[in-house]
Design goal:
9-stranded mixed β-sheet; Rossmann fold; 514 residues; 24% strand; 18 helices
Length: 514
């Protein structure tokens, strides 16, 4: 007899060849896809083959009635099992029933059933059934293909551990408008294939590899890509959407389980800004352990993330960060949009250097020009593109003294520094995107900044600055001396006039204590 193939067009032979005495299991979400698969498989069998189709709750005649007369085996026997509680017992006794109907040695057997018939089977029962069925198949030199329809992630998870009893295990499902075929493992005379994913398309002739998959054949391990490992709090009390959602009370429990995943979605909650760096370290370790196919999603439960924090989480392994003001419905949509993604960042071999690059310097406020240019050299020299900074040249309007400008500028964030050189104001904003420049200037300047400066030019980097002028400038600038003297004089005059009068004030913290 010729070779027996699963017959998905354009797949390689070792990915669909069935060996004699083998037990193969294909899980399909929809019963109609199971019928397509059965029809395509039977049509591809050589004429000299002897085949048997057993349908549980499915009329086998409806499967084969559209087969072309010149395709398939010369002998095809059809049997049906009732779709009720007795189906479980019939499945357990399958080999005994097949023996009673005098199966010809070397036959090809196809069994179609619903996953609902197996929902009470535990791992030990499945292992026993697979082991005894495989022994019987090897004794009669037959090949059995089980087409199991219906979503059953727990059943599939149990089957994954039975790779010594099963000759092959795969899964076919539809998602995001595409048909996905997931090859978990497949033994044949040509060797072993494992952990491969394909995109298929379907026509009247059956399933075939999609054009996009044929032009881009890259494959990654995706055994668990439909599993959602989730911290319970991100669902806001809502129940899990399906059995594929696994909930964990605490982040540590979630990340421990996620360490065994390869392409699952891992969804963690972020409550406060103080958790950013510890979470980033955990994500870095998880990404290093599990690889780029894992989908790591961080949901911000309270407004706490700055631009720098988002970039740090992305660089350490996060695929997606969901903002705090996102509704639950939109959150689910964003999670679905992340399916099929691969983490595109290059993982830094030294996480300490990454943290140093993304951590703001300790300086802030007005600096002497030499210290200003030295700080910029340090920041831009060690940059690897994770953060965007803003370097500005601001030219004051001529109707105010420079010390009056300085009194209208407040730099609160660490890393935000400025200096004055030759009557021009230079401002550097650490970890600031271009779209955040306008509100940043509004926070820095007490007066409208457009009224204070006649020109605002964004500079690409420190290289475009007149470097030597910054280095040669006096260490304590005349501007800083004048500004300090003006403040001291104003303070002395106020004390002389009114004396010390205690006043209650409230100061807001713009930077967390560290």
């Amino acid at each position: 007899m010729g070779q027996v193939m699963l017959a998905i067009r354009h797949l390689q032979d070792e990915q669909m060849l069935l060996r004699q005495g083998g037990l193969y299991w294909v899980a399909l979400d929809h019963a109609t896809d199971a019928q397509f698969m059965a029809r395509q498989f039977l049509s591809s069998l050589p004429e000299e083959a002897v085949a048997t189709l057993v349908g549980c709750g499915i009329d086998p005649q409806s499967v084969v009635q559209t087969m072309a007369e010149d395709c398939g085996p010369s002998t095809l026997r059809l049997f049906a099992m009732s779709d009720d509680a007795r189906a479980r017992l019939a499945f357990k006794a399958l080999t005994s029933d097949l023996h009673r109907i005098n199966i010809v040695r070397g036959s090809v057997l196809v069994v179609m059933l619903s996953a609902a018939h197996l929902d009470t089977f535990n791992t030990q029962q499945l292992e026993h059934w697979c082991r005894t069925t495989r022994q019987w198949l090897m004794g009669v030199n037959c090949t059995l293909l089980v087409l199991c329809s219906g979503q059953a992630p727990l059943l599939h998870e149990r089957l994954l551990s039975l790779n010594e009893q099963l000759s092959g295990l795969s899964q076919l499902y539809r998602q995001d408008g595409s048909i996905h075929y997931q090859l978990n493992f497949w033994h044949s005379e040509l060797g072993v294939c494992a952990a491969q994913a394909f995109e298929l398309e379907v026509s009247d002739d059956g399933f075939s590899l999609s054009d996009s998959q044929r032009s881009n054949p890259a494959q990654t391990r995706t055994d668990d890509q439909r599993i959602y490992l989730t911290q319970r709090s991100v669902l806001e009390g809502a129940p899990p959407l399906s059995e594929q959602w696994r909930l964990f009370e605490h982040r540590d429990e979630l990340l421990q389980q996620a360490g065994h995943a390869r392409a699952a979605s891992v969804i963690v909650a972020l409550e406060t800004n103080q958790d950013v760096e510890p979470l980033a370290r955990q994500l870095y370790a998880l990404r290093e352990q599990c690889g780029p196919a894992l989908k790591i999603i961080v949901r911000e439960m309270e407004p706490c993330l700055r631009y720098r924090d988002e970039r740090l989480l992305h660089a350490c392994g996060a695929n997606l960060i969901v903002p705090s003001n996102t509704t639950l419905a939109n959150f689910f949509s964003m999670v679905e949009s992340a399916q099929g993604q691969t983490w595109r960042y290059r993982q830094t071999p030294d996480i300490h250097s990454l943290f140093e690059r993304l951590r703001p310097p300790a300086q802030r406020g007005i600096l002497p020009p030499r210290e200003f240019i030295q700080l910029l050299d340090q920041i831009y020299g060690g940059a690897s593109g994770e953060l965007a900074h803003q370097l500005l040249r601001l030219r004051p309007r001529g109707d105010l003294n420079i010390e009056q400008y300085l009194s209208q500028i407040t730099l609160r964030r660490f890393g935000d520094v400025a200096c004055v050189l030759d009557g021009v104001f230079y401002l550097f904003l650490f970890a600031c995107r271009g779209d955040g420049l306008e509100p940043a200037l509004g926070n820095i300047c007490r007066l409208p900044w457009r009224d204070m400066f006649s020109e605002c030019k964004v500079l690409s980097a420190a290289d475009v600055l007149p470097r030597q002028d910054f280095i040669d400038a006096p260490q304590v600038s005349e501007t800083a001396r004048l500004a300090t003297g003006q403040v001291s004089a104003d303070l002395t005059r106020a004390i002389v006039q009114t004396g010390y009068v205690p006043q209650r004030i409230t100061l807001s913290l713009s930077e967390p204590c560290s």
